[in-house]
Amino acid sequence: MSSTGPYESKRQLVAEFQNLEQEDAILAEYVWIDGSMENVRSKTRTLRSSKPITDPTTLPEWNFDGSSTGQAPGHDSEVILKPATIFKDPFRRGNNILVLCECYTPQGEPLPSNTRAHAKEVFEKVASHHPWFGLEQEYTLFDTKTNWPLGWPTNGYPGPQGPYYCSAGAENSFGRDL
Fold first, then answer.
1. What is the DSSP letter of 120?
2. DSSP secondary structure code for residue 99 in this structure
3. Do 146 and 106 sit in the same domain of this protein?
4. Which of 19, 6, 72, 79 is nearest to 43 (CA)?
5. Among 111, 114, 139, 169, which residue has the least CB neighbours within 10 Å?
6. What's the pLDDT score for residue 78?
């Protein structure tokens, strides 16, 4: 068991740091998709402002070593982070923010992992058609005793998805109280 000094638990230690007075400091967590296009990376920059920051164009660009994230060769590894959008940081109190970023070469070319830049280019070409895209999240809850999806028959598989796809009602939707 590791020692946390005068703190009773790691949670207490974390809480102590989370509750430090920040005065006019804003922690901006720059977030981007790495070269695998399967993982996100981030690093934190401290900014000075007495007011909340809501406009990504007011944020400074930043850089990182792309050879460590699969986004650049070792001999030419600088990658530029350009802020694209801002969200209030749900994990930190105060005016701290999450900054979703796009990745570019120092010459201003979007990296292959920068799919936002490609999507923007395509959308601008067909703007008169009012294109849009949506994200769909699906979840499967598992019974902790059987390791079987919640609501599935104990000794088999459920019927076709028709009755319970986007359904309502206790007979078709399981785990809603969670």
1. H
2. E
3. no
4. 79
5. 139
6. 94
